[in-house]
Amino acid sequence: MKKLISIIIPVYNEQDNVNKCYQELSKITKRLSKNYKFEFIFTDNSSTDNTFNLLKKLQKKFKNVRIFKLSKNFGYQRSIWTGYSLSRGHAAIEYDCDLQDPPELLPKFLQKWEMGFKIIYGIRKRRRENIIINILRKIYYRLLNSISDTELPYDAGDFMLIDRTIVNLLKEEYDTNIYLRGLVFSYGFPKIGLEYSRNKRIAGRSKFGFIQLFKLAGDGIISNSTLPLRLFLYIGILIFLFSVCLIVYYFISWLNDPSSLPSGFTTLVLL
């Protein structure tokens, strides 16, 4: 029997890219149809444009298309997680609808998977985006790796193939602020990265502004490192020690000269 591969495509207001995305991916999957079957899982993050109507037309036309619409916008990472949870394939590939990642990498992903790797991820060596954002991304990935409890590859996004074993593990995760990239690598399965140049978005607008990127970065740090917890623990200890010093200081001051402080002030400070 042919192995089933699930292609997870999260979408939000992508009416200009939905059909094009399916067409481009279909060109690649048809070449691989001798050994594999494919299902396309579109998870619509409650789009407000015509995206879902276009997806319904695709589903009626092609039997290998499955669509799911979330009741509200749960965010990019939860949308991907939903796709993984609903997938039925022996392996799953996440692919963004904006076509910035090259579909031509899919055969190489599958080739590495057949060699025994459980995680095959794309490494974005070049991005045709704002230079300042690119610099901040590089700094962030290196900072995250330095403080993370798991070794995370540099410049890797969600464009990757993961084995069914990992999909089953992800289905058990119910974190509302899930950070899939870090979680996937934390399981410790054999992995390999493939370098590529990321294309510029052709149609539509990016849904990731600075605020969304900042929130995703925060989720990555909190999910993959105990540093924030340790940092607040140390701050708490310092505040406690400082408070003890003030208590001793004001208590001694009151013993030496009770009239030097307003009535009741020492009691309030001690409390």
Tag the structure with descriptive keywords.
alpha/beta, 10 helices, 7 strands
What does this 3D model show about the protein?
The protein is α/β, with parallel strands linked by helices. Helices cover 47% and strands 19% of the residues. It is built from 10 helices and 7 strands. The protein has helices at 18-31, 51-61, 76-86, 106-114, 131-147, 164-170, 180-186, 210-224, 227-256, 265-270; strands spanning 3-11, 36-44, 65-69, 91-94, 119-127, 156-163, 191-198. It is elongated, with a radius of gyration of 25 Å.
Number of helical segments? Answer: 10
Low-confidence stretches: none
N- and C-termini, Cα separation: 74 Å
Q: Which series of helices and strands comes N to C?
A: EHEHEHEHEHEHHEHHH
- Mean pLDDT rating: 85
Helical/strand content category = alpha/beta
Q: Specify Rg, calculated over alpha carbons.
A: 25 Å
Q: Beta-strand percentage? A: 15-25%
* Strand neighbour order, sheet with most strands: 3-2-1-4-6-5-7
Main beta sheet: 7 strands, mixed
Number of strands: 7
Residue share in helix: 40-55%
What gross morphology would you assign?
A: elongated
